[in-house]
């Protein structure tokens, strides 16, 4: 669509959040154009854990509630996506097992168990024998395990392929290689965007879903910006030459995780590094992942290395995403999803599309309102 000069809604970012929001907005009858620069994105390397209960942190109850809400809707979201796109969106009902390598880990797992139980989350504490009954490939040295039966997974690459088809089938458009460098605004209102090529596209509304690159967008004064910084994660993708089935569940230690794919692929993640926009894998990063996970799953040593990758998680100062109206008319944010971009895709899409359609954020989503970061109130 090289000639296009305007749209009701221009979405900046062709990752899961941008595409899913575009899909939902198109279903509401909005004329949607997604612009994707093709920059390295976190979803391309993400393991796709849908693990709100496993990842719950002290003091992050609002994020947990959002994650649980999104996780609860994920299976139907994926089924609808699969049906609309006519291709598998990659959802697996896998569950997750968190395992202790030694006595210190086991003590930490007991604390995690108490905390999750106090939050009313479903989790089962397993001694080594029952844990190995569930996952026979676990090392005999595993001391303790927690089973989270509802923390499933999705293959983000499959999900994004399906979302692209769904957006188009719902009447939306997607342009790849469209690098937006600037947001145009006049009289406190967004008027469109400017591409690297100099091309301008007018828009009644612009949804910023640029992940870690959100901060590189020019044209916005500081007082209306959502602060997002990149947090590097190194990821290793392995393949079992023997085919799928070494483990059924996602497996976590306190420091790393492994997510099995249906085809014998495994995604191991991930480091947490404040290194700016650095996308270089390191020997140390790969070593950490293999050391932590092979200790509990020695079968990893037989696997082939397919990819070593880095992703940039988009982090806000309080780890919660910013989803909702911005401080200029026509500006809507859906960014800052940090460790939870895949998990929060369905719920962010519903919220973003509702706001684009002129609705207010529901009360349960007020903790995501972008205005908590801006010194100028939402428009
Ligand atoms: N959600 C997993 C990660 O960010 O590494």
- Number of separate strands: 19
CATH class designation of the largest domain = Alpha Beta
CATH architecture identity of the largest domain: 3-Layer(bba) Sandwich
Helix content estimate: 25-40%
Radius of gyration from CA coordinates: 21 Å
Number of domains: 2
Strand content: 25-35%
Structural class: alpha+beta
Describe this structure in words.
β18 (322-325) and β19 (331-335) form a beta hairpin. This protein has helices at residues 16-27, 42-45, 52-55, 61-85, 103-118, 128-134, 156-169, 283-296, 345-356, and strands spanning 6-12, 32-36, 49-50, 91-92, 96-100, 124-126, 144-148, 152-154, 173-176, 180-186, 189-195, 200-208, 229-239, 250-252, 257-260, 265-269, 304-315, 322-325, 331-335. α1 (16-27) packs across α9 (345-356). The strands form 3 sheets. Strands 1, 2, 9, 10, 11, 12, 18 and 19 form an 8-stranded mixed beta sheet that branches. An 8-stranded mixed beta sheet has the order 6-7-5-14-15-16-13-17. By secondary structure, it is an alpha+beta fold. The protein has 2 domains: 4-45 and 157-228 and 317-378, FAD/NAD(P)-binding domain; 101-149 and 230-315, 2-Layer Sandwich (D-Amino Acid Oxidase, Chain A, domain 2).
Q: What layout of secondary structure does this protein have?
A:
Elements: E1 6-12, H1 16-27, E2 32-36, H2 42-45, E3 49-50, H3 52-55, H4 61-85, E4 91-92, E5 96-100, H5 103-118, E6 124-126, H6 128-134, E7 144-148, E8 152-154, H7 156-169, E9 173-176, E10 180-186, E11 189-195, E12 200-208, E13 229-239, E14 250-252, E15 257-260, E16 265-269, H8 283-296, E17 304-315, E18 322-325, E19 331-335, H9 345-356
Parallel strand pairs: 1-2, 1-12, 2-9, 5-14, 12-19
Antiparallel strand pairs: 3-8, 4-8, 5-7, 6-7, 10-11, 11-12, 13-16, 13-17, 14-15, 15-16, 18-19
This protein binds glycine.
